Structures are given as structure tokens and as C-alpha cells.
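Colleagues,

Please find the record for the two-part complex below.
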Amino acid sequence: MYKDTVSNSFKLGKVARIIRDIFYRLDYSEIFLPAMDKFSPELRGGLKTAYKNEFYMIKPDVTSHLLSSIMKEEELKVFYVSEVLEGTPKGTWQIGTEWIGGKVALKDKIIEQISTVKAILKSLGIADFLIDIGSLRKWREMIDQYDLDRKIVYEAIEKRSFSAMGSMDIPEAARAGLMSLLQKRGKTCDDPLIDGIISAVNDDCMMVDFGTLRHFDYYDDIVIEIYARHHGKMIGGGGQYMNRGKDCFGFALDLGILSQLASDSLNNCQEVDTND
Amino acid sequence: MINFVLPKGRLMKKAAIVLEKIGVVVKEPQDRELIVKDNGFNWIFSRVFDVPVFVENGIDVGISGSDVIDELNADVFVPLELPFGQCRLSVITSAQKDLRIEQMTNYRIATKFPNMTKAFFADVGIEVNVIKLHGSMELAPKIGIADAIVDIVDSGNTIRANGLKEIYKIRDVGARLIVNRVSQKTKFQEINDLVERLSKVI
């Protein structure tokens, strides 16, 4: 049995309440997904189990769970608070949003969601955060241009492995291109969508980093990572994906890390304008 | 300032030699010191199995065996394979027996690496009972608490001296430079510089 579950719950609850208020003010609806669902190849993460000759997933990744549950085409602007498992019984508590479908342009969805992340972190008194933005499309274009093995390249990027990239049997121009993308970090990148988002968000916390590669294969192009200068683990991340031909964007934050970072400042919480 | 964690023991000596080639001198701990500040580095000295844990949780950079990184499934960047610590993770049985992996159903396997051992036997479709030990693996088959062991083999002298033999290599193992995912972003220039300089001398 896990120790000190109750006092930990109070800490998480305090943070979740502040974030819930922000989501409600921005017209997100809270969703409640079942803890277990029948196994399907579309579900990511989770813990596989069997019951009465059927396979189930316990607490899978929320985005894939939600997408596999949607029965009709509709705009969904939702948030959730959920424990998520990743192959082991010990999970992490996440709070996140998904903005699925609708008529709002992708760029505007991303800008609103990044602004929401900023509002959440500022409400919790977390000041030294950074948000990196990357592009999976850039990697795909490079892989297609040189007809590279996607799995091998993605494994090398995810580990940031210069040794693996150096030993790949590929043209030197391809290797130079991959290395250059991996090292791309700055305030702009000559990509109209990314530069436009950074310009609209207009905050020093934004950085372009093409080494940012989220793990889930349902992401289509833009991905973000959220972290604080003085904490060794990522606060969260998110990305763009497609559902029934419509652009979607979502992000998830680690409630445990937020509660650690906010613990000193929660008593001094201030109301933050969510349009910031 | 870069926080750099090194494993105590043999790997640390070899790491120090490679780092010296790029002008980085590892200041070894005096007496029972665990952290040494020197010339832009905070040197932290830890147990082998703790190095990836430290780096995953916020120490900027470390050097660790790939066996430990894989066993712990550590969420860290692994930019460089380093030219030392080469050995292999293998299945080892009594030298008296003539065994193949396929014959090991329901065997008791003692190991320091239960996750990799379970994954290996699951991959080959053999059900085994894995017993986690923290050291002196060779003892387990001798005293009859295990039928085989999964362990690191370097020269093979230790297993031969204990009446054992290597029957299957699971994977090659070597030293790796590992980097914390957040530090890679917040100390981008310093860490890139370190990786680039190291990549030129290995």
C-alpha cells in the first residue's frame, strides 16, 4: 500500500482546484473516462490486464483513450484530471486538456492552449518556466527526403544519440541535416506557423527546439514541452494531432510536479488574467 | 556549473581518463566526500545503480553502464557511447550442464537485472522464475537457490573460476554519457560543448 496517500491527495487537490477554475473560465468541460477499458491497439500507455478471458487496459494515456471513445464528429473542448499508468502499477496524476475539431484555426487553438499553460503556471506562482515548441513535420520531411528508416531515426532523436546518428549508414548530407535539426534551438526558425505562434504568444518563455520529440505516435506536427529551470523533470507537454480530418491540440501537466513546484508559493496565489 | 555524477569504482577511473583528454580533470573525493566542487563542475560520486536515477531526477550529466540505464528504463538522453566498460549481459549456467535457452522453462534465474531478464525470456517465449539478488551472483547456482544466472561477463574468468559457463549473450554493454532532459535545454551550450568535445576524442 502506498504511504501518505491522504496528505498527498490534499496537495494535489489544492493545485487541481486552481487549475480547474482556469479551465472552467475558458469554457472547457470536465470529462471522466473509465479507469479500465477493453484493450484496443489505439490505446497508448496503460497497464494491460486480463479479466474473464478478455484483455483490458488500466488507466491508459488520456488522449488515445478519449479519441477511441468519440462516436461522432463534434467539437470537444475538454479537460481531465486522471492518473495515468505506463506499463507499471505506479502512475502519475495528470491534468490536461484536449481541443478536438471545431472551426477555430489550428494556430489559434495552439496559441490559446499555450496561453492557458502560462496562466496555470503563473496562478501557481511558478515563474521560471519555459515552453519549447518543436515540429515533427520537419523530421518527417528530412526522413522522406533521404528515404531514411523512420524507426531508427526517431530512436536516435528520442535519446539524442550522436553516436547512433554518427554510425547510421546514410548519406553525409542526411547526417548533417539530422544533426542540424537536433541542434536547432532559438527564438525563431523560419517556419511561418511556429514563428507566428511564438510572435503571438509574445513571451520570453517560448523557445524553438527541434530536439523536442514527444513519445506518442499520434502527434502530427507541432509539439510542446513545458519545464522549469530549477526542476529536473518535465512539467508536461502536448501536441497536435488529427481526428476525423480535423486539427486537434492538447496538453497534459504532471500534477505531482506542479504540486512540488507550487508548494512554497500556493499561499501567495494571485488571480491571473487567463487572456494573458 | 555542470553537475556531473560518476559511478564509484572501476568505471570512474576510466571515465576520468577520457574526460582528461578534453581538459576536464575529475577531482576525486578525499576521505568520505560525496560531492567535490572544482573548476566549473560539481562532481558527485554515487553507487553504479544510482547514476541514471540521479540524472533522471535533475543532475545534469553522468556516466553509466548501458546495462543499468536499460534495467532502470531511465528517461534520460544518451548522446554518446564511450569507449570503455565494454562487456556483455549473458545467461550463465553450471559448466557441468549442456543446456540451451529453450530447455530452461520454469528455471530459477538469479540476477541483478530482473527487468531485462524477464523481458529477454518473455521475448523468447520461455517462462522462468526470476530471483533478484544484489551481488555475488555466482553463489546462487552453487548453493542451489537458482538454476542459472543472468549477469555481466567481462573476461569470463570469474564465472570459470566458479565452475560456470556462459551459454547465451543477451546484449552488449558499455559505458554511456547520459544527460538530464531539462538540463539539455537549460544548459544547452555547456552540455553541447561537452558532448562535442568528448565525441572528438572517443
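Residues 188-201 of chain B form the longest helix (14 residues).

Comments are welcome before we finalize the supplementary table.
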